[in-house]
Write a structure and sequence with these properties.
The complex is a heterodimer of chains A (about 130) and B (about 130). Chain A is mainly alpha-helical. Chain A contains five helices and no strands. Chain A folds into two domains: about 70 residues; about 60 residues, no CATH class. With about 130 residues, chain B is mostly helical. Helices cover about 85% and strands about 0% of the residues of chain B. The chains are: A mainly alpha (about 130), B mainly alpha (about 130).
């Protein structure tokens, strides 16, 4: 699969993202098991709870690293515009939902959804930006 | 060497922002008044709750227009880099806090706070990126 990616920067990015995803699954399982079997509390509970977030933060940093390593100006610009679109989308969504939670007693939204929603918006944005350049 | 600031884009941006701030203040007051006096429910409550958020979304669109209108490639790069690192920091915070809420029963962080958190990071990253290019 990785062999089909000719761009070395893109190949490194895909591998790093897969490693991050695998670590996220692993750390989530470890955290879930620790909470189920050990019932930690206090500082230890906080430390275990942040474990699955670390690979996700790593994935974000790797995206920034990829932008720095990508030599193709067009591809980089495409990704930057998509990420900016994702940024606008997620900020709009959280602000709108925040007001609905506060005023209209909408169901409580877990912050854990912000990250996947951001990528959903970035994906939509990517499609739109590509259409623009067709 | 002193850089020439693109005053036309900045001027338009400031005017639009001022207009939107006035709209935001008026709409927020109206929504608060309606909630305090008439206690709306159902679809009306949701529609009213979204109104102030629309002004915030307008502010984001205005910022997007400002970036698009910028003629100075350097300033545009600084703005885009700052925005991207700000969203990385914001997503890191929301993901970390999301896991803390989910697993360690940390206090609920309102989605409404995501935008101000992003704003704070934008201020910090803009200063850092500017310093890097000094």
């Amino acid at each position: 699969m990785y062999c089909s990616i000719k761009n070395p920067a893109e190949r490194r990015y895909v591998i790093r993202m897969w490693v991050s995803a695998a670590l996220c699954v692993l750390f989530s399982t470890v955290a879930a098991l620790v909470f189920r079997l050990g019932h930690p509390h206090g500082v230890l509970a906080y430390l275990v709870a942040v474990l699955p977030a670390l690979p996700i933060m790593g994935a974000l940093v790797y995206t920034g690293v990829y932008l720095g390593e990508e030599k193709d100006e067009f591809q980089r610009n495409l990704l930057v515009q998509s990420l900016l679109g994702g940024t606008g989308g997620i900020l709009a969504a959280t602000t709108a939902w925040g007001y609905m939670e506060d005023f209209a007693h909408a169901p409580h939204a877990d912050l854990i959804w912000v990250y996947p929603l951001f990528w959903a918006f970035a994906g939509i944005s990517y499609g739109l930006v590509r259409l623009r350049y067709r | 060497m002193e850089r020439k600031i693109d005053n036309s884009a900045l001027g338009r941006y400031k005017k639009r922002m001022l207009a939107l701030m006035v709209v935001l203040a008026l709409v927020s007051q109206l929504v608060f008044w309606e909630y305090i006096h008439n206690h709306p429910t159902g679809v009306l409550a949701y529609m009213l709750a979204v109104l102030p958020a629309l002004s915030f979304i307008g502010i984001m669109v205005t910022y997007g227009l400002y970036i698009a209108e910028l003629k100075d490639e350097f300033v545009r790069t600084v703005v885009k880099t700052s925005l991207l690192w700000s969203i990385v920091a914001t997503l890191s915070v929301t993901t970390l806090w999301g896991f803390l809420e989910l697993l360690a029963n940390a206090p609920h962080l309102q989605p409404l706070l995501v935008l101000p958190i992003f704003g704070i990071f934008l201020g910090i990253t803009t200063a850092l990126v500017n310093r890097r290019y000094e």
